[in-house]
Amino acid sequence: MDTGDSMKAFFDPTSVAVVGASRAAGKGGNTIVANMLEFGFGGRIYPVNPSAGEILGLQAYPSLAELPDAPDLVVAVLPRLQTAELMKDCAAAHVGSVIIPAAGFSDAGDEGRRLQDDVMGIASSAGIRVMGPNSIGTVNTGAGLATSIVTLERLKEGGVSIFGQTGMFASGIARWINTSEHFGIRKIACLGNKADIDENDLLEHLADDPGTRVIGAYTEGVRDGERFARALARAAAAKPVLLMKSGRTETGRRARESHTGALAGSEQVYAGVIEQSGAIRVDDFEEMFDCAKAFEWLPAPRGNRVGVISITGVGCVLSADASAVHGLVMPPIADSTVEAMRGALPEWAPVSNPADIWAGIESSGAEATYRAVASAIADDPSVDSLLLIFTLIPESRLDVAALFDEIRSAHPEKPAVAALMAGEATMHVEWKEALESAGVPAYTSPERALRALGALCSYAKRTDPLNPPEVHQTTTHHRRKT
Amino acid sequence: MDTGDSMKAFFDPTSVAVVGASRAAGKGGNTIVANMLEFGFGGRIYPVNPSAGEILGLQAYPSLAELPDAPDLVVAVLPRLQTAELMKDCAAAHVGSVIIPAAGFSDAGDEGRRLQDDVMGIASSAGIRVMGPNSIGTVNTGAGLATSIVTLERLKEGGVSIFGQTGMFASGIARWINTSEHFGIRKIACLGNKADIDENDLLEHLADDPGTRVIGAYTEGVRDGERFARALARAAAAKPVLLMKSGRTETGRRARESHTGALAGSEQVYAGVIEQSGAIRVDDFEEMFDCAKAFEWLPAPRGNRVGVISITGVGCVLSADASAVHGLVMPPIADSTVEAMRGALPEWAPVSNPADIWAGIESSGAEATYRAVASAIADDPSVDSLLLIFTLIPESRLDVAALFDEIRSAHPEKPAVAALMAGEATMHVEWKEALESAGVPAYTSPERALRALGALCSYAKRTDPLNPPEVHQTTTHHRRKT
Questions:
Q1: What's this model's pTM, rounded to 2 decimal places?
Q2: Mean pLDDT value of segment A22-48
Q3: Which of A2, A340, A385, A417 has the smallest count of CB within 10 Å of its CB?
Q4: List of chain B residues whose C-beta atoms are within 8 Å of the C-beta of residue A28
Q5: CA-wise closest residue to B356 among B324, B317, B329, B304
Q6: Of A150, A151, A422, the CB nearest to B176
């Protein structure tokens, strides 16, 4: 089976039939059509409804059989008991690809499982590829495609593709990314019960998708472990793959079986497969998105040596702990850097990496201190990446996007990230937006920032054998002789 | 030394002299006076400045010696090199308590350490208690006291007191709590270099403070380990103590020594002392505040059995994993609960705990489904606490504060929390505010919500020997017979 071709209809169809399309706002069969219009789908949309003449300005058709041509993709917004009949119609109409949003199949006990077997038997005989049942749909921003049954606003285009065993990706999570994470999306697929299309199909497809630069995947367990190991390793060799695997505990495994009726191997087996593949295992969605934006926006660091600048001493201490946890080191800085930093700080202030610049803020103000210290540390040849920590108080106002712009212009090869620790909530939203619209990841803690830098760094090291070897921690504090 | 009395002047003075008070907005010596006025301090404020006649409408005095009476508390907003001289003036004026905001003492190498020893020698001979150097100050909402050198808005009053080795507590963190965490503050103390007053003084004071119901503390290491072990255990016996200890790694320990010049024992020793004390160790500020609001707002659960309701299957799976990690179980629900839930869900939908209610949302809408299922599970006698998971999409709009109000009226004895998973950023802010102004903790993930419930539960179990023993996980899925 040519997976590449089969996936094409789910992401880049020339025509989509929405069976069960509805004139009633709020119904899934209306929402899909609205989403396709919102995203600006370039192909043909065929609403199918036995009685409606027009839906959202588009001509509707009473049945699949009466469409002007066979659609590339059918989205079946029908009650679960009508799904088998529809699948027969699809076979008759030579449809090759169907998305089934309805739940109540293998996710709902033995009766549901039998129903799913019936539907899939028909699909399989006709060579129809199926996403679902229990799938919220797909998105491809490059084609203006959005088959979600949940209302979406047009998503920002980018290179991150996400897929997995949850409808959240094409509903709540898509909205969250668009309004709060600020990175751009390429493709989304919600796999639902995975009666046919599963993680392996998506990994194989996205590994070769030129528009996908970063992959985020969520799974509760796979059926074909060997193919999974191969597909994961292949995708991870091509681009960063951020993999979240739940069902780590016995209770979690039971809840998962109830969710989509999938079976799964032991946690140890998964841990080994993921480790070997080169994929980056993330614990939760927060970590997935924290890392996704770092990979999407930042260059690969040349090594694991990070320079840290903090308005507060606690930021330095937490960064030191977190660096050690995430495989990074904070190297001693060069004498020239020390001299450059001294200009921005009172004469008695200790100068080191991590740099606690509170004394400078008090004497020279936030703008001047951050600029001078950040530019000195960015220039230091022993620093591969930068973390700037801010606390959002009236005393620390400055043009933060301009600050990062300067660093990036001087050192485009060094990834630089921000941590916004505490402070005013509204100021937090403003700063995050200012930074992230400029492609600078802004995290809520030094720990989160360094976790993302650590992921960048291990990926860079794994994929580029010419990378310098890891440095281990040694510290020198530079104090003015007295 | 009577610690209780000594601490009184730092939190509840009848008069405060601000030495180095300034007419210039933005200077620390102006900000403190402004903060005291903003918070509505009921005692006398004496700005001290050699030349100023009036500062922010208050009469200023040229020197400590010329004040109408000896102030209870002096805040010394002076350059570090003038601090020793001031301490002599304080001794002469019979001042008993001094806060030193200036940095550049033991936080700045050998010369700074000598300077600190000089200042502390004078203080000690005169019996003066000192907070700092390098202390941002104290807050007591009950007395309208705010000696922070960073601009604050008046904080919401409540029962949570926080203190430790960071100026963030009386600056960025105070602002963050006030604008984003929504719980009320009783007292704050920033201990700085801890040349005199340290964690032990604060633990002893807050253990007996009737206005403090929950304690949050941050430390990078203590000097007197035995007194710390006693003070921590005493405070933890009186109320929940959430303790964050950094410097876990070798690098972190070195950064800490540079931050405030403190020495510290090994990580293993701390881990043992904290474990034995009954304090709750938290990993970061996020966990501290997540737990603080749960303890401040919620009743103690009767046991560790949690009922989980989720709009999405992934919420159920993540909750199952997190429950196991945090010592909670999701018990099978009673037959009567199953019957009550069936009314809100399609006949084919599986009914269990955790409850995935997406099918109900599609058929009956969010409002009706959440209400019916939450009320059924809250009524179940085998459930001790509740977690409701929401995804903020247009399809799930409902009056969420009213929903929790209903649960709380019916079962005031069962703590109930919310997880707001993904969705629209602005909707997230609105829902969080609606819930938290009503005293319902709203977390951004099921994992964070269950971590807080787990902390409530272990605390309840430890402090109430009559609590039923922990239940271990067994699961039964109730499916309609077919």
A1: 0.94
A2: 97
A3: A2
A4: 362
A5: B317
A6: A422
